[in-house]
Design a protein that fits this description.
Layout: E1 6-11, H1 17-29, E2 43-48, H2 64-76, E3 80-85, H3 92-98, H4 101-108, E4 111-114, E5 118-125, E6 128-135, H5 136-140, E7 143-147, E8 149-153, E9 157-159, H6 161-164, H7 173-181, H8 185-199, E10 203-213, E11 221-231, H9 234-244, H10 253-261, E12 272-275, H11 278-281, H12 298-313
Helix pairs in contact: 1-2, 8-10
C-alpha cells in the first residue's frame, strides 16, 4: 500500500514536452504508477490553476506542458481526463485557447469545462461545521488530480495544493467568501481546508518548474525552482513546499489552519520524501510578499464581478 504521507520531489528544468512527461512519469512511479492512483475507466478532473487568461511565460497559470503530460498519462490508463477550473476572471475556454491547450484537447477528445453548477454541501472539518458551495461538476467526477502553479500570494503567503482547490468554487462565489471573511484570516484559511476536504483530490502535482515570487498571484516575477512536487496528502505536499522555499510552516496561514483543525501531516519526520534530497534543491532566496488583509469590501466584489463578466464575454486580458 502506498504511504499517504509520501511526497515526491522531481527535478525538471524546462517545459519541453519530453522532459515534463518524463518528470510526471517519475512522479507517479514513486506511488506505484498512475494506475495505482486512479481506476481504469474513471472520469478524472484535472484541476489546473486558470486564474485568468495569460501567457504561460508570466507564471500565472499552470503550464500547459504539465497539464498535457498528466492528461496523456490518464488516457493511457483507459480513463477519461476532463480539464476544468473556475477562473477568477474570464472563462476557461479563453484561458485554454491562450495557452494552446484547446488544440491538444481537441486532438485527444478531452473536454475542457467551466466548474459551474454550484451545489451547497455541509461538511464537518476538524470538529467545525462548514456550509460550502462548490461546483457540482467537481463533486460528480470519480477522481480529481490537482495541478497547482506555485506562486507567492499577497494574502496567504503562497498558493500551492490547498489554495488551488478553491477554484472548485464556482465563479464569483470565491469573491463573496472574501467579503464574508471580514478580514478574519483564521476563518478564511479554515474554510480553505474544509473546501479541500470536500473535493479531496486523489493526487496533487505542483508545477514549480518556474514559479512566481514577489507579488502573487498575478503581479509577481518568474522564479526558476525546477521541480515538480507530488503527493496524496495535500497538506504534506504544501508542507514540503515550505521546506523547499526555506519558510517556517508557522508563517504560512493555510498550514496553521490545518494544524488547528488536525488535518493532514506536517511532521517532516513522518513524511516520506521520494526523489531529490530536500537539502540539495532548497531555494534560499525566494521573495515573498508582505501580507494584505484577506477581506474584500462590497465595492471591490462588484468591480471584480464586472471585470470577470467583461473578460468572459467580451474582452481580452
Amino acid at each position: 500500500m502506498t504511504n499517504p504521507n509520501k511526497v515526491s520531489v522531481v527535478k525538471c528544468t524546462d517545459y519541453s514536452k519530453e522532459d515534463v512527461r518524463s518528470a510526471v512519469d517519475k512522479t507517479f512511479s514513486y506511488f506505484g504508477g498512475i494506475e495505482n492512483v486512479i481506476k481504469k475507466g474513471s472520469k478524472v478532473l484535472l484541476k489546473p490553476n486558470f486564474l485568468k487568461e495569460s501567457s504561460p511565460r508570466k507564471c500565472i497559470v499552470t503550464h500547459p506542458a504539465v497539464i498535457e503530460a498528466v492528461a496523456e498519462s490518464v488516457l493511457e490508463t483507459g480513463s477519461i481526463p476532463i480539464i476544468g477550473d473556475s477562473p477568477a476572471f474570464g472563462s476557461v475556454a479563453k484561458v485554454a485557447k491562450r495557452i494552446g491547450l484547446d488544440k491538444f484537447a481537441e486532438k485527444n477528445g478531452i473536454d475542457i469545462i467551466e466548474l459551474d453548477k454550484p451545489r451547497k454541501v455541509s461538511i464537518n472539518c476538524g470538529g467545525k461545521d462548514f456550509s460550502l458551495t462548490v461546483s457540482g461538476k467537481a463533486l460528480d467526477v470519480d477522481a480529481i488530480i490537482n495541478l497547482p502553479k506555485l506562486k507567492a500570494h499577497v494574502q496567504v503567503y503562497f498558493t500551492a495544493g490547498v489554495k488551488n482547490l478553491y477554484g472548485c468554487v464556482s465563479g464569483k462565489q470565491k469573491a463573496w467568501r472574501h467579503l464574508q471573511a471580514k478580514n478574519n484570516l483564521e476563518w478564511y484559511t479554515e474554510m480553505l481546508i474544509a473546501n479541500y476536504q470536500l473535493v479531496k483530490p486523489v493526487f496533487t502535482i505542483v508545477d514549480a518548474i518556474t514559479a512566481m515570487e514577489e507579488k502573487g498571484p498575478t503581479g509577481g516575477k518568474p522564479k526558476d525552482v525546477s521541480l515538480l512536487v507530488g503527493g496524496i496528502d495535500v497538506i504534506a505536499v504544501d508542507r514540503v513546499v515550505t521546506e523547499l522555499l526555506s519558510v517556517r510552516p508557522d508563517d504560512v496561514p493555510i498550514l496553521r489552519a490545518a494544524k488547528r483543525l488536525g488535518i493532514g501531516e506536517q511532521d517532516l519526520s513522518k513524511i516520506e520524501i521520494a526523489g531529490e534530497e530536500l537539502s540539495s534543491v532548497k531555494v534560499h532566496d525566494f521573495i515573498f510578499p508582505e501580507l494584505l488583509p484577506i477581506g474584500f469590501d462590497f465595492i471591490r466584489v462588484v468591480k471584480s464581478l464586472i471585470r470577470h463578466l467583461w473578460l468572459k464575454n467580451v474582452g481580452k486580458a
